[in-house]
Amino acid sequence: MSTEHKPVPISFEFFPPNTPVGSDKLKTVVQDLSAVKPEFFSVTYGAGGATREKTLATVKDIAAMGHEAAPHLSCVGSTRESIREILGTYRAQGIRRLVALRGDLPSGTAVAGEFRYAADLIAFIRQEQGADWHIEAAAYPEYHPQQRYAKKDLEHFAAKMKAGADSAITQFFFNPDAYFHFVDEVRKLGVTAPIVPGIMPIHNYAKIAQFAARDGIEIPRWVALKMEGYLDDAASVRAFGIEVVARLCRRLIDGGAPGIHFYTLNQSALSLDICKQLG
Ligand code: FAD
User: Fold this and answer.
1) By alpha-carbon position, which residue is closest to atom 13 of ligand 1?
2) Whose CA is nearest to atom 2 of ligand 1?
3) Hey, what CATH class is 10-277 in?
4) Domain assignments of the chain as residue spans, ordered by start
5) 222-231 long-range CB contacts below 8 Å, 24 or more apart?
6) What is the 3-state secondary structure (H, E, C) of 135-177?
7) Cβ(57) to ligand 1 under 6 A?
8) What catalytic reaction does the record list (predicted)?
9) Ligand 1 pocket test: which of 156, 160, 167, 262 has the largest number of ligand atoms within 8 Å of its C-beta?
10) Top mutation candidate among 12, 43, 52, 74 for ligand 1, by most atoms within 8 Å of CB
């Protein structure tokens, strides 16, 4: 692929490791990924706050290595007081960027708490903390799986952005037209903020197909059949996965995407290979 393209900002997403060994390994991954000078690294937050301490510890590790770290924060099931306390802890650590989400409670858990939607959390952060946070929200180019009506989902997304989000990161997808259509639709609703594609390198095809089926994400038939045909030929899965994802990124960037956010699953090699393909 050509190397004559203007670079776009890159960011990487991690989940908080469960063990000290995992934390050490993640530091090496951060080090490796820093070669492409990412804008920030984000760290997910377990459903209902299950990883609260681990998310904080991971964010601190990344910040201590001199990089911008953005914790994810979900609000469903939380009280205003608990969110206030978490924001205070991050603020004291010098963190000023976060990914604000509704989240999903584990099934069987009652929906208690003082927030219903991500828009409520975003409005609360702005109201309590002012303008000095960079707030990212989640976007779904193939629509949120719990929303039956596309038009409603677009309107809810626009309302969430108007509540005070600075930019959005999308759910992963493989169909660039879904992204471009989503961006066109929300622009018509007055959303001007950058909408950064979330990209899933294909680490393990079976697992990604499972995530996609759960979250209502289309895997094109030509990709699915070819991947399924490779069976356990890991080298072919890897090479084809890089080709498909790098081509997707190229189309997105050429079509105006303002950046790329990689779902790394705490691994560096595939994301780096894709960045290399992109020049
Ligand atoms: P919302 O924007 O609140 O939307 C949720 C649903 O409610 C949608 O169907 C929407 O159409 C509907 N809705 C919104 N407003 C209204 C309204 N006023 N009336 C009626 N319906 C409404 N999950 C985690 O647990 N931890 C993470 O770290 C995490 N990180 C993520 C990062 C990214 C980039 C993305 C894309 C998703 C992430 N998720 C994470 C998953 C996310 O929490 C789930 O998809 C969740 O179901 C929705 O969260 P949201 O912030 O998009 O919700």
Assistant:
1) 156
2) 118
3) alpha beta
4) 10-277
5) 223/174, 227/202, 230/205
6) EEEEECCCCCCCCCCHHHHHHHHHHHHHCCCCEEEEEECCCHH
7) no
8) (6S)-5-methyl-5,6,7,8-tetrahydrofolate + NAD(+) = (6R)-5,10-methylene-5,6,7,8-tetrahydrofolate + NADH + H(+)
9) 156
10) 74
- Range 188-195 average pLDDT: 98
Amino acid at 134: H
Q: Would you say 205 and 238 are in contact if contact means Cβ atoms under 8 Å apart? A: no
Q: What is the pLDDT of residues 60-84, one digit of tens each?
A: 999 999 999 999 999 999 999 999 9
What is the residue with the minimal CA distance to atom 49 of ligand 1? 102
Q: What is the ipTM of this complex?
A: 0.99
> Which residue's CA is minimally distant from atom 20 of ligand 1?
156
Q: Token digits for 215?
A: 């979250």
Q: How many CA atoms lie within 13 Å of 265's alpha carbon, on the beta-carbon side?
A: 12
Average pLDDT over residues 181-206: 97
Bridge-partner residues for 70, per DSSP? 42
Strands 260-263, 97-101: parallel, antiparallel or unpaired by DSSP? unpaired
Question: Which residues, other chains included, contact 162 with Cβ-Cβ below 8 Å and sequence gap of 6+?
Answer: 190, 191
What does the alpha-carbon distance between residue 200 and residue 273 come to, in Å, rounded to a whole number? 13
Q: What is the distance of C-alpha 99 from the center of its chain?
A: 8
- Ligand 1 contact, 261 CB (< 6 A): no
95 pocket-lining for ligand 1 (C-beta < 6 Å): no
Residue 252 · residue 176 · CB < 8 Å: yes
Cite the beta strand spans of 145-265 per DSSP E: 167-172, 195-199, 260-263
Q: Does the predicted TM-score (pTM) go above 0.90?
A: yes
Q: Could you count the other beta carbons within 10 Å of the beta carbon of residue 89?
A: 14
Distance 135 CA to ligand 1 centre (A): 14
Ligand 1 close to Cβ of residue 268 (< 6 A)? no
